Amino acid sequence: MQMQHVSIFAKDLEKMKDFFMTYFPGRLQPKYSSPRRPFESYTILYDAGPNLDLMWEPDLPETLDPPGGISSGYSHLAFSVGSREAVDALGARLRQDGYEIVDGPRTTGQGEYVCNVLDPEGNKVEFTI
């Protein structure tokens, strides 16, 4: 068995697409617009691991969790960027570009080198070696 994709509903689909393609790039598929209902999406394909589906529809309810907060359910997406130096460089770039680094770079109790940033809509995105 293999995980195929992860999906995120976005309030601003274009902003989220730009964020992920800028900092966690893959192969962007053409935008899908449903002919039956107000729904749009982008899929970003990655060479390894699951693909990322970014989806939008009008009138999405607000999440009850604070941005980057901890609650039951999904915690974060994680991307491997290849090296400790790449984690440091991406963390510095994201911070310089105005994104909130909520944790790291640091070595976890399990020995992983990680950094966590909030995407434009407050979802936690981790990047590691």
Descriptive report:
The chain has 129 residues and is an alpha+beta fold. It folds into 2 domains: 58 residues, 2,3-Dihydroxybiphenyl 1,2-Dioxygenase, domain 1, CATH 3.10.180.10; 56 residues, 2,3-Dihydroxybiphenyl 1,2-Dioxygenase, domain 1. The chain is built from 2 helices and 9 strands. Strands 1, 2, 3, 4 and 5 form a 5-stranded mixed β-sheet that branches. The longest helix has 13 residues.
How are the elements arranged and paired?
Layout: E1 5-9, H1 13-23, E2 27-28, E3 32-33, E4 40-45, E5 51-56, E6 77-80, H2 84-96, E7 101-107, E8 113-118, E9 124-128
Parallel strand pairs: 1-5, 6-9
Antiparallel strand pairs: 2-4, 3-4, 4-5, 7-8, 8-9
How is this structure best summarized?
With 129 residues, this protein is α+β, with helices and mostly antiparallel strands. It has helices spanning 13-23, 84-96; strands spanning 5-9, 27-28, 32-33, 40-45, 51-56, 77-80, 101-107, 113-118, 124-128. The protein folds into two domains: 1-58, 2,3-Dihydroxybiphenyl 1,2-Dioxygenase, domain 1 (Roll); 74-129, 2,3-Dihydroxybiphenyl 1,2-Dioxygenase, domain 1, CATH 3.10.180.
How is the biggest beta sheet arranged? 5 strands, mixed
Q: What assembly state would you assign to the polypeptide chains in this entry?
A: single chain
What portion of residues is helical?
A: 10-25%
In the CATH scheme, the class of the largest domain would be Alpha Beta
Give the end-to-end Cα distance, rounded to a whole number of Å. Answer: 24 Å
Question: What is the number of strand segments?
Answer: 9
Poorly predicted sequence stretches spanning 5 or more consecutive residues: none
User: Any idea what the shape is?
Assistant: globular
Order of helices and strands: EHEEEEEHEEE
The CATH homologous superfamily of the largest domain corresponds to 2,3-Dihydroxybiphenyl 1,2-Dioxygenase, domain 1
CATH architecture of the largest domain: Roll
Strand fraction: 25-35%
CATH topology of the largest domain: 2,3-Dihydroxybiphenyl 1,2-Dioxygenase, domain 1
Tell me the domain tally.
Answer: 2
Question: Treating each run of at least 4 consecutive H or I residues as one helix, how many helices?
Answer: 2
Main structural class: alpha+beta
